[in-house]
Amino acid sequence: MSIVLSSRRVPAVPAFAVALILVTAAGCSRQSAKERSDTVSAAPAEKSAMATMPGTADTAAPPSSVTLTAAQIAHGGIKWAAATQTLVAGSVEVPGQLVANEDRTARLAAPTQARVLAVHVSPGQKVSAGSGLVTLQSTEASMAQADLAKAQAELASRRAAAAYAKSARDRAERLLVLKAIPRQDYERAIADDELARAGVNQAVAELQRTRSNASQLGIDVRAGTMTLRSPISGVVTTRDAVPGAVVTAGAPLVTVTDPNALWLTAALPEAFASGVQVGSPLRFTVPAFPGQAFSARVQSVSASFDPATRSLPVRGLVVNTQGRLRPEMFARVWIESGARQSLVTVPEAAVQRMDGNDVVFIAHRATGGGARFETREVRIGGTSEGRTAILSGLTPGEAVVVEGAYAVKAELAKGKMPKMEM
Predict the structure, then answer these.
(1) Are 111 and 246 within one domain?
(2) Same domain membership, residue 393 and residue 321
(3) Average pLDDT score over residue span 65-79
(4) CA distance 308 to 305
(5) Which residue has the higher pLDDT, 44 or 413?
(6) d(CA 217, CA 229)
(7) pLDDT tens per residue across span 187-222
(8) Same domain for 115 and 233?
(9) Are residues 151 and 223 in the same domain?
(10) Do 308 and 335 fall into the same domain?
(11) Is the C or the N end of the chain the one with fewer CB within 10 Å?
(12) Overall pTM surpassing 0.70 (yes/no)
């Protein structure tokens, strides 16, 4: 038998050969499907192996924990100890800042819309009370100058009229004695004299008003400009005025403060707030003078807590006659807070900041000498003698990392990094 294709004749393929070809193709298909299945099943196994590698975030534990091997713990110098409850000293250490004493600070602003003609001081310059700071030119100064000249002219006119009325009264008195005029004319002369004297008094009051107004605005009546003068002796801390600039009423120009008295601001933790009061002693240090302590007294205690930090704002008065301290310096403040209290404390280095929160790391032993470290948010109090008080979030007896906390934090940061797709 033969099959005809076009005009050519091709020999027929035997039936057993066709069957052999079909069997071979089916075997190849089964082998390819098996290889694909093995490849797909290998991917989860690799991911599972990577997830169990030491130093990565533990998938079985919360995302805020990390498991480290014994070698990693030794390399990072990580040590932990049971949290204990101890008596905290009567003084608590908190961060603070030196600021200008607002009771001895003058913030000069433009009294009216004006143009800055000249600025006579620079930041850091010492000035005395009455020193000229800024010279301005404005329509208010011109109007005050005109009002003052008008008042002076009015006073001169009233005085001339009063002099004439006085002479008329004297003449009327002489004529009345001689019976040359009726008494009615004499009484009219007396009334005119008294009216003229009242006019003089009114003109004098108006002149004093215009002079006082010009003085308050610092107006030079001869030049038609106004000069702002320092009301206190001190140091120029800020200068916002620029020659040639046009400023609106109330725009800040120059700030002068007395550096002999500063304020020390601090925030006292809630647990220590009951013992502080006005007059309590303060001790503080600043980075500019390491190893040297300064003293102050509590001047005021806020009537309410800060709702965001749950701390009590405290302000102290610092006597700075030597001028060594300056506003805006950071400080470490020790506040006497009364009797000793029993609180959970940890070394200062055990507390770390993560995602804007204060945290400690709780250690859980694992097999092979390793350990799993869990992140625990805490609310801290003050720091005294290198130990920080824990107000909430930690109970006595829990194993907390006391050394190498930063190394644990670094490993946690690695675990939060996006994983690379394989």
Answers:
(1) yes
(2) no
(3) 90
(4) 9
(5) 413
(6) 10
(7) 999 999 999 999 999 999 999 998 888 887 778 777
(8) yes
(9) yes
(10) yes
(11) N
(12) no
